[in-house]
Amino acid sequence: MKLKTLSTAMILAALPMSGAFAAAMDRSGQSISAFLQPGNYFEAGISVLDADVSGNSSRIVTPTGTVVPSQATGDMASSYYFPSAALKIQATENFSVGLLYDQPFGAKAEYKNQSGAFNPTGNEGTEAEVHTENLSLLLGFQPNVNWNIYAGAVYQEAKGEVALRGAAYSALSGYDANLKRDSEVGWLAGLAYQIPEIALKASLTYRSEIEHELNVNETIGGVTPFDATGNTVFGLTYAGAYAQYIAAGATPAQAQAGAGAAATAARNNVDAFTDGKTKVTTPQSVNLDLQSGIMADTVAFLNVRWVDWKGFAIRPNQFGQVLDALSTLPGQSALKGGNLVEYNKEQWTVTGGLGRKFSEKWAGNVSVGWDSGAGNPVTTLGPTEGYWNLGLGLQFSPAPNYFIAGGVKYFWLGDADALTVANPNVGKFEDNNAIGYGLKIGYKF
């Protein structure tokens, strides 16, 4: 099947920066537009996100009674980039196969500013990075020129690192975790309809959740939480219990006695803690993509994306057991069942705009996007709540069978209250923004 010259519809295939910054840890947007291009097609792209996210920490009282005043956090959002690539082969008139690579979910945060809440030394502050990679294999059946029914398997790898520092994490300050790379398989399926004569396309794609079980190396203050002597559990329990007794009006001597008894009991129960892997489930999602010609050389497009972040949690094995042990202390029952990271709301993202072909070689687009966020308050490792954005894209086609496209998006990030498992209100992040850049090449053969 020979391919026709570039059409107005190809503007959308060239649209970079489809995701880049979204609620929770959503990044790429998981588009399958490359697989829906006619004939044989290849593309590769890269997106870069430069965010400025800062706020002020709340006044915090540490377990030992020290008061840490409210302070500016400085910019905690590290810049990042992520590549993407796709290959689609029209094997026969009715069957196609595709291979898509992207990095769908991720996070990168680093508190560099000296602050008692998140970086007590100015040298070693709270840091976190989560990284995933997807390789999707799709098979499509086209019974006629209008319909495309497709499904496939998704191979996903996930890993992460985290370091907690400062008064915001209470007795858990000094916690480090290295979540080892794990690979699992999920699936996707969808349906697409098109009328090429009017540049009409519609597709609906579902992606399954993927459950990982990661091996995690965990330390608190440089030693494993459950060492042979139980000293780490002893120290954490003592600090928490002492603060609770003082807050209740006990004298220092009474607080020392009570905290010592509680810590000894916790250390004696250290054998009850168990080794185990950490379960992390990346969310299911649905993408709805629509486009239609509205006048000569002009198309309107709309993308609606739903991601099921509700109930998402990262709870490293030993981290969770330490929290459950500390939850037995007076006033600490809320720690039981706590998570390192969690989201409590489904995410909706809507992007719409116009694309126009200016000449045989030049085309462009403009878009507006909105993201609902995934709940507020949110973790200190990603303290924003949704966004609005404005995007511009430009495509140059030196020849009918290939193009080069670039795009930029400016994000107005939503204000958010930040929390940790140890403190329900540790800071407020307001008036933040981000800018994203994208570059993509496409080739038809």
How does this structure look, described?
It comes from Acinetobacter wanghuae. The protein is mainly β and 445 residues long. The chain has one domain (10-226, 273-444): Beta Barrel (Porin), CATH 2.40.160. Helices cover 11% and strands 47% of the residues. The strands form 5 sheets. A 14-stranded antiparallel beta barrel has the order 1-5-6-8-9-10-11-15-16-19-20-22-23-26. Helix 2 (231-247) packs antiparallel against helix 3 (252-268). It is elongated. Mean pLDDT is 87; it is low at 1-14.
Shape: elongated
Order of helices and strands: HEEEEEEEEEEEEEHHEEEEHEEEEEEEEE
Question: Using only CA atoms, what is the Rg?
Answer: 25 Å
Distance between the termini: 10 Å
**Strand line-up across the major sheet:** 1-5-6-8-9-10-11-15-16-19-20-22-23-26
Instruction: State the helical fraction.
Output: 10-25%
Summarize the main sheet: 14 strands, antiparallel, barrel
Name of the top-level CATH class? Mainly Beta
In short:
With 445 residues, the protein is mainly beta. It has helices at 10-13, 231-247, 252-268, 317-326, and strands at residues 41-52, 55-57, 60-61, 67-68, 80-89, 95-102, 106-110, 127-141, 147-163, 175-195, 200-207, 210-214, 216-220, 278-282, 285-295, 298-307, 313-314, 341-342, 347-357, 362-371, 378-379, 387-399, 402-413, 416-419, 427-429, 432-444.
